[in-house]
């Protein structure tokens, strides 16, 4: 856990059957001593500037950029339709076109959006106090629920999990009871690295979120 | 020599009197699917790349179907599901490639027609070709019309008019009139 903008990065575990099918699939984790809250002015300005860089042509060609492309392939290989359930960067870019901008929501969501748009890597966040210490990627077994008490998950779904239960699905759905709230004081960030995604992009994504969460007015 | 050629692996021998038919024995070993799965996943990756390239090649044209339905993920697909996904992607890519080829042929004809119109407008009276016909975005069009109206029509003076683009947005219209302060049955508004 770190109180600086450059937190130590760790690798999570990956279940053997998943690693067999998807060599190069990794989970990167970082801890930050910060929660969410209202975004400072500098973050909102940065978000606006990023939104201004996204155009229709940019979104059309995004699927051939190396990082969004790698996630698109992973999405397809795990049975998702990347044109419906879009990979993180594409989802934000398409939503920006639809809404005409990227409105600020809160510090954490803004930080995740900024990191994803700048690097193409999706990041999810959990409350450190609500999750275990060893996060990793595995397949669900029959009858498991998201977060332990949330919605039911089908068998053999790919999830981010701790020692006890699934915490989030591969496509970024986080268990409500494990996510960041107003009371959160420390956050665990997790990013999935697909094959062909450069390690530096994942590092950059996690550092960007950490740096943004520690931004002061 | 039927006795020699018939396969017998995994099948229980039948009794000579033919009294009962026995079911085949289950295989004693588990098949290692990893190599097959790896190959299929690589094929899915290549086909997804091809579909992405086709999407960019077809844009901004409309009417191309490039989506392949999801398989209820995110999960590890079975070998059969991966084969089905690979086949669907391949079929979609093939259809899109063929449609794009047909469309670009027609667009090439339209481009040639524009050149002919510009060279000899009198041979292409009233012909109109739009940007959409040549696979370009926007509302521009080429239209062969007579110069100076009826006179040009009678004298066979023709020219190609090129429109300047899309019409301007109509705006939000006039400001709505304020509602009356009294509404029947509701009294005075606050």
Account of the 3D structure:
The complex is a heterodimer of chains A (217) and B (190). By secondary structure, chain A is an alpha+beta fold. Chain A has helices at 16-21, 41-53, 56-62, 66-77, 88-99, 107-119, 199-213; strands at residues 9-11, 13-14, 26-32, 123-127, 136-139, 158-161, 166-169, 187-193. In chain A, strand 6 (158-161) and strand 7 (166-169) form a beta hairpin. Chain B is mainly α and 190 residues long. Chain B has a domain at 34-68 and 77-162. Helices cover 41% and strands 9% of the residues of chain B. Chain B contains four helices and five strands, in the order H-H-H-E-E-H-E-E-E. Chain B has helices at residues 2-5, 34-58, 79-119, 149-155, and strands spanning 128-130, 141-146, 158-162, 182-183, 187-188. The model of chain B is unreliable at 1-13 and 183-190 (pLDDT under 50). At the A-B interface, helix 1 and helix 4 of A face helix 2 and helix 3 of B.
In short:
Chain A is an alpha+beta fold and 217 residues long. Chain A contains seven helices and eight strands; from the N terminus they run E-E-H-E-H-H-H-H-H-E-E-E-E-E-H.
List the helices and strands and how they pair.
The complex is a heterodimer of chains A (217) and B (190).
Chain A: E1 9-11, E2 13-14, H1 16-21, E3 26-32, H2 41-53, H3 56-62, H4 66-77, H5 88-99, H6 107-119, E4 123-127, E5 136-139, E6 158-161, E7 166-169, E8 187-193, H7 199-213
Parallel strand pairs in A: 2-5
Antiparallel strand pairs in A: 1-3, 3-8, 4-8, 5-6, 6-7
Chain B: H1 2-5, H2 34-58, H3 79-119, E1 128-130, E2 141-146, H4 149-155, E3 158-162, E4 182-183, E5 187-188
Antiparallel strand pairs in B: 1-2, 2-3, 4-5
Helix pairs in contact in B: 2-3
């Amino acid at each position: 856990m770190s109180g600086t903008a450059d937190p130590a990065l760790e690798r999570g575990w990956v279940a053997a059957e998943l690693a067999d099918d998807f060599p190069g699939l990794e989970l990167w984790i970082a801890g930050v001593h910060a929660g969410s809250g209202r975004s400072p002015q500098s973050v909102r300005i940065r978000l606006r500037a990023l939104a201004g860089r996204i155009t229709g042509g940019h979104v059309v060609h995004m699927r051939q950029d190396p990082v969004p492309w790698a996630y698109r392939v992973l999405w397809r290989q795990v049975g998702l339709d990347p044109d419906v359930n879009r990979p993180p960067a594409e989802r934000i870019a398409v939503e920006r076109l639809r809404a005409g901008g990227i409105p600020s929501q809160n510090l954490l969501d803004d930080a995740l959006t900024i990191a994803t748009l700048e690097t193409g890597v999706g990041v999810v966040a959990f409350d450190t106090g609500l999750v275990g210490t060893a996060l990793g990627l595995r397949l669900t077994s029959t009858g498991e629920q998201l977060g332990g008490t949330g919605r039911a998950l089908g068998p053999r779904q790919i999830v981010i999990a701790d020692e006890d239960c699934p915490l989030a699905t591969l496509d970024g759905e986080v268990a409500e009871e494990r996510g960041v709230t107003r009371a959160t004081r420390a956050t665990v960030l997790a990013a999935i690295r697909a094959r062909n995604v450069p390690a530096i992009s994942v590092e950059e994504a996690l550092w960007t979120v950490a740096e943004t969460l520690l931004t002061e007015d | 020599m039927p006795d020699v050629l018939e396969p017998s692996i995994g099948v229980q021998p039948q009794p000579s009197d033919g009294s009962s038919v026995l079911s085949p024995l289950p295989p004693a070993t588990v098949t290692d699917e990893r190599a097959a799965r790896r190959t299929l996943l690589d094929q899915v990756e290549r086909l997804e790349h091809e579909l992405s390239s086709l999407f960019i090649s077809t844009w901004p044209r409309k009417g191309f179907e490039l989506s392949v339905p999801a398989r209820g993920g995110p999960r590890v697909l079975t070998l059969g599901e991966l084969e089905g996904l690979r086949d669907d992607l391949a079929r979609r890519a093939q259809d899109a490639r063929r449609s794009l080829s047909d469309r670009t042929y027609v667009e090439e004809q339209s481009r040639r027609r524009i050149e002919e119109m510009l060279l000899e407008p009198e041979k292409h009276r009233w012909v109109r070709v739009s940007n959409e016909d040549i696979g370009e975005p926007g509302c521009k069009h080429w239209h062969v019309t007579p110069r100076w109206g009826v006179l040009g029509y009678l004298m066979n003076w023709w020219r190609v008019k090129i429109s300047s683009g899309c019409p301007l947005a109509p705006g939000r219209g006039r400001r709505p009139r304020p509602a009356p302060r009294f509404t029947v049955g509701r009294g005075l508004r606050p």
